Amino acid sequence: MTDRGPDRRSVLRAGAAITIAGFSVSVVSGCGAGKNNAGTQAAATVNDLSDQAKQAIAAAITSGKVAVGKPAFLADAQVIVTEPTRGQYRVFSNICTHQAARVDQVNAKGNLVCSLHGSEFDPATGEAKVGPAGKPLPSKVATVSGNQVTIS
Length: 152
Ligand code: FES
Prior knowledge:
Blueprint (H helix, E strand, L loop, with lengths): L7 H22 L1 H17 L3 H12 L9 E3 L4 E7 L2 E6 L9 E4 L5 E3 L5 E2 L6 E3 L8 E7 L2 E4 L1
Antiparallel strand pairs: 1-2, 2-3, 3-8, 4-5, 5-6, 6-7, 8-9
The structure holds FE2/S2 (inorganic) cluster.
The site of FE2/S2 (inorganic) cluster has 10 residues, from loops.
């Protein structure tokens, strides 16, 4: 058998691999993938709270750092604690479901705001009120009983 270089099948396989690799790169850096990754990241922050994060949340609630209309942005814990109505607390991921920037502000309407593209989220439900984000911020409920704060 003589060495004639790569046959047609080998070239096609190589081309397919290059196409797939190029597609993967564009998907990872594309806006659509950012949405998917952002949602997954956001959910992880509230579904897998560390003991340190739980303590920070409890401290924010019991110290009065969070109040009606005054959310507490706990950057180290990657969460926001709100008190939508007196005595009822919510814990939200601070990772924007659009492209994973930080939701780190509250506006005059009381909505939680991502400063990167301006998405606004309801402080009671996490619902995206103003886009570009379309998905809500994942959340948990924090309940206070005496000195005990339970996050569920
Ligand atoms: S990352 Fe785009 S609005 Fe938050």
